[in-house]
Amino acid sequence: MTIRTPSGSRWGLACSLVVALLVGAPALHAHGLDKHTDAASARKTDAGAAAYTRSESAYTLPDVVLIDADDRPVKLRELMATRDPVMVNFIFTSCSTICPVMAHVFAEMPGVLGADGKQLRMVSISIDPEADTPLQLKAYAKSLKANDRWKFLTGSSEDIKAVQLAFAAYRGNKMNHEPLTLMRPTAGMSWVRIDGFAAPDALAREYRRMLKP
């Protein structure tokens, strides 16, 4: 498999991880996504590394309090009630396969979206709360040069599981998690669900498509 990416780009490095993942673990995408995906909406990423599917769903979030990278409590429902666009993924900091890819895609978003992304709020939720303390998340955010509109959250195991279940993202344990991005234009609207890997340009297109009236 050959992937052409900009020389020296962070996405080029990330795509090399995608290739290793797809070649070494093809079963990753086989965990019951039928009810969330539409074959007609499948798209190829810009890099050609993998396919993703787009669907829309309404989710009821649990009334939980999580903890951010500054060790402050965050009421999830209040956080997601913002009128600003929101983009969410699930990661854990010791992950060496799909999480670095998803994290670097988020890191690229401000630059790729430009003025279109000024109101975007990004949220990365750790699915390894035992290890991912606020201090650990803060270091992870710093390594990604995350701006103040990108929030990293952890919490109790029960609350993190409840959030994953609410977004139909729970796969039993952290080693079974799949590449997933969720976004919605404003509070009260349906969520756009991106199952699989979308390159920064592809995700930016989906984001702009979502914002169109």
Description:
The chain contains six helices and nine strands. It is globular and about 40 Å long. The protein is α+β, with helices and mostly antiparallel strands. Residues about 1-50 have low confidence and may be disordered. It has a single domain (about 10-210), classed as Glutaredoxin, CATH 3.40.30. It has helices at about 10-25, 75-80, 100-115, 135-145, 155-165, 200-210; strands at about 45, 50-55, 65-70, 75, 85-90, 120-125, 150-155, 180-185, 190-195. A nine-stranded mixed beta sheet has the order 1-2-9-8-5-6-7-3-4, with helices on both faces.
Properties at a glance:
globular, 6 helices, alpha+beta, Glutaredoxin, nine-stranded mixed sheet, single chain, 9 strands, 213 residues, disordered N terminus
